[in-house]
Amino acid sequence: MDEIADNTFTEIHTAELPNDDPSLLTLILELSPGGWFNIKDETTILDVVKSLLVFLNGHLSLNNANQVAFIISSPTGAKFLYPNPQKEMDELRRPEEYEDSNEMGIPSLVSKGMYRQFRIVDEGVLEEFNKSINELVDADNTNITSKLAGAVSLALTYTNRMLNLDQSISTTTASAISSATKESTGVNTNTSSSSYQGLTRIKSRVLIVTPNDNEDIKYISLMNGIFAAQKMKVPIDVAKLGKKDSSYLQQAADATNGIYLHIEKPVGFIQFLSTAYFIEPSIRSLIILPTNSNVNYRASCFITGKSVEIGYVCSVCLCIISEIPESMKCPTCNSQFDDKIIAKLKRKPVVKKRKLENGGAEVSSDNGTLAPATPEPTPVPE
Amino acid sequence: MSSSNSFKFTVIEHLEGLPNTIQSRLYEAPATCLSIFRLLPPIAKFYIMTMLFYEKPVALRDLDKWCKPNARVYQFEALKRMKALHLIEDDNSGQFIRLHPIFRKNFRDCLTGSQTSDAFGILTSSGENQKIDLKFLHSFASTKWETILHFMVGTELSTTPSRSVLSLLKSGGLMEGSGRDLKITNEGFQFLLQDINAQIWTLLLQYLNLTQELNMDPVDVLNFIFMLGSLELGKSYSVAALSDTQIKMLTDLKDYGLVYQRSESSKRFYPTRLATTLTSDSNSLQNTPSMAIDKANNVQDEPSETSKQAGSIILETNFKLYSYTNSPLEIAILNLFVQMKTRFSNMVLGQITRESIRNALYNGITAEQIIKFLETHAHPQMRMLAQEKLDKKIEFDASNNINTAISGESAAAAASQHKLEILPPNVVDQIKLWQLELDRIQTFEGFLFKEFSNQKEFEILRNYASEIGVLIWSDNTQKKFFVTPEGVRQVSDFANRKIQRR
User: Fold this and answer.
1) Which positions in chain A touch B377 (Cβ < 8 Å)?
2) Which residue from A15, A172, A189 is facing B376, i.e. has the nearest CB?
3) pLDDT tens, residue by residue, A220-245
4) Chain A partners of B37 at a C-beta cutoff of 8 Å?
5) Half-sphere exposure of A330 (CA within 13 A, CB side)
6) ipTM here
7) CATH of segment(s) B447-501
8) What is the mean predicted confidence (pLDDT) over A136-154?
9) What pLDDT does A196 receive?
10) Do B43 and A279 touch (CB under 8 A)?
């Protein structure tokens, strides 16, 4: 039966264009003073922010239902620059004054005649951005670890909210329009066209821009974020400025089918943005993504926080450690390690001479509590 | 091809038909650049964006490299559209392309915010004596537009659309007759089945044709229409920034419900929702999240309203159709392809039969249109049921095949198998089959390639043609193949390149 149906409905032109659904772009900019200082000869944060704003405008111009969010992850914490709930409440309360209050902001960067949708975003971002820079100057610099993992979680929670909210919104807008044309034709195509993506219709992606060379990202929370993104099918794109590759962010992009590029010379950053990072989720299946396959899959040690190439894995909770603690207990789940096996593991490898036919068959088969871990799937030598 | 895209194609086709000089002048307005950009297919948008900030011409071969082989069809389509709109220009050698300089400059300015300040209309300053709120605008737009639709199906109404609307309907072939005694045509019925954005664009394009006869400048008219699409709902804009042609248009657009102006001499006008969603997908979201959240909160305030207007049609597997409506408009539309049986005060009951569908098909309505209409007007409960079924299916598949959740690509493939079936599939198939009964022979225009010197040459060309999606038919033994008229140039260019190389 199926075969008959298939043949009958085959049309010669199956040029079904990739869907042009609205999409949400969440930008995360890392504001680590050290990182930006290191690349001060290449670019300034102002240039990068300018490029990012143009990039946001570009995203908004794709479809007027497109949405953006801008999050910064500064040492003082991750926070939203846009959308800014506080400001929008003010705007709702006094729309007239809001128009004027723009001039008090930073009018030098945002021209008044700009397309409104762009202007609202750009002004909002710049204003808040300046505030956060000032906050950063005032803050004491005792705690300057990266808050990127937090920013990623913020981005994902926001995405999730928009995904779920979207459903109710599109029905309301549809009903708003169909109230405009009550009986004519409902514009409520959302459910019918959503058929191929199941529940989620708005597409979304996250772009992380960071110059941070320190591998001080909270590995576990970042990994949790990555898995969440994977499940939500949100690609995480990464633009890594600065001198070094970041293995964790490489993993993030790799696991979520995103794009990772290490941009050492961010001259003409906008060209990078408008080419490599402008690939909408809807056309990802059609474009060859500019990723490098050479991903560093190293995990981070749960005790020292450093990345490990060869370490131990607790067989109970799968936590990764580079050295065995004094207490002989797993630092995460507190299970006791077996002394004998640890001794075995710590033993220096003995080079034995073997006959060829037995060679290579010997693999430690004891089902002990601890097994030597080769980080999956293959360690990449540095 | 989803119907939300269909209006984009009609608009783009219209634009493609314009002479090059007019297109160039169109690109001088940033708002128009933005709107045209939005109408393009996604791949074309991507290409334009990549070329926008790149100073040198781009090699065509590089564009090929970005796309996966299975995307050739879309790439070909995108390039074709951009060429027809003259958005990209060939280098002399034919190997490199670059963006149209005026378009490039203006679109760039638009993104960077360095264009002239009146490009997106001038907001009138505050101090209106009477605030026009969104609700008023909605109701204004809806009454205007509804009046037109009701008039078309011949509902007894106290008001009739203005003369300009009537002449538009007539010249567009949607209605026929003389004076006030107009009758709806088959095209008119097809028009009713379209979604609202497509309807508005149909009228606007008709309007454009009309304005050309009236010696109005098409560039002015188009610019104004595109600018309307980028204005903001609920704000008032100053008339002063408009040209004379555009001021003349205001009265007409007011008749369609696209803009609101308190009086002819008023200095400000308000775009309505019909205008602001012109260049977007009809089911567009709100501009800012806060507005979106606001909207979401509003739902709770007016739950009765939303449920009432969501859709009213229930279709059963036995081809029976129930519609909870008493609107003459909807009943008239249903009557096009349903055999109506009974009418109650709040619902009508009908049956889909072979005869009723064939009648519709003879009138030029397609099976796709019927199915689409039924889907968009399905009762929320049908939708809920379909959703439940789909969820169960996904769950079932996921539990049997764990892999679907893990790797992204296979999950996407799985998702494409899970279609939301709002209408009973047997009815949908049957409607399609009834259509197929009518067209047993399909004709295609195109070009035949034959007399290849060897099998290899034939295969290279044939494969190329099928890659870019223009191949209609091929025969290996006779070494002949047939391509669409759009693809013939591309294929023969390719053939010349290949043969030269030998």
Assistant:
1) 185-186
2) A189
3) 888 889 999 988 889 999 998 888 88
4) 61-62
5) 19
6) 0.72
7) 3.30.70.2610
8) 80
9) 30
10) no
